[in-house]
User: Fold this.
Amino acid sequence: METKKFLSGFIAVIGRPNVGKSTLINHIIKEKVTIVSDKAQTTRNRILCIHTDENSQMIFLDTPGIHKPKHKLGEFMDDAAYQSLKDIEAVLFLVAGTDKKGPGDMFISEKLKNCTVPVFLLINKIDLLTKEQVLQAIMSYRELYPFAQIIPISAKRGENVDVVLDELKQILPEGPKYFPDDMITDQPERLLVAEIVREKLLLVMNEEIPHAIAVYVEEMKTRSKNKVYIRTNIYVERNSQKRIVIGKNGSILKEVGALARQDIETLLGSSVYLDIWVKIKADWRNKVAALRELGYTKE
Assistant:
């Protein structure tokens, strides 16, 4: 009896900021490995997310949204997105069906012109559209690039996501199992914890300040039976931002801490004591040394 071939490969997920890339990845992996927010440019690093089943392993590269950089952090984020287009088997180009085709989409399609692998266009957020609006979006975007397939999806509800996976299996080559069956991301626990805290800041705060925020886990260790102590630093660029992040009588930090602790305990499978500090690191988004210290640049 012939053994069924095992398929594997790397798939880049690209698109403008805030089109639902992280939501799609989390649905595929069925775990929360990348943070989600309605604010643009939430993802800052390129994150490997691994989906394994009986016959295949797909390694998705969740990338920062491609945008015009305004600082060195933005340059790093764009570089991380473009680097994901190397040594891959396919590209998932995500657009939001609720948005009109814009210069950002055309900019990305230009970057794809030298791409030699299949590019799938995923029109996201169809749960917010009528059938006629979905068809209009397909007609509008199809002229951008010779896409292998155009698939309307709802990353939030999971609609047609199984279709995307089936299409990817059609083009994946035979290959090895790169990661163990139970591994869903290449990110260390400390980084996942820091990202959870940052996600809660994005959720709680309505200011533009969250984009001037970095989160770094300074210490993480088990202090007593099934109790993990985590000391986390939130870095801002100015003293005025520090006051806003802390909130009146520490109200913002308390809310962020309570929300983050729930997700971190689920991630680690143990109770957590979360110690959060807010510190000033002036203009850190434009300083290479600070970006390196916070894990945003290559060594």
Observations:
- The chain has a mean pLDDT of 81.
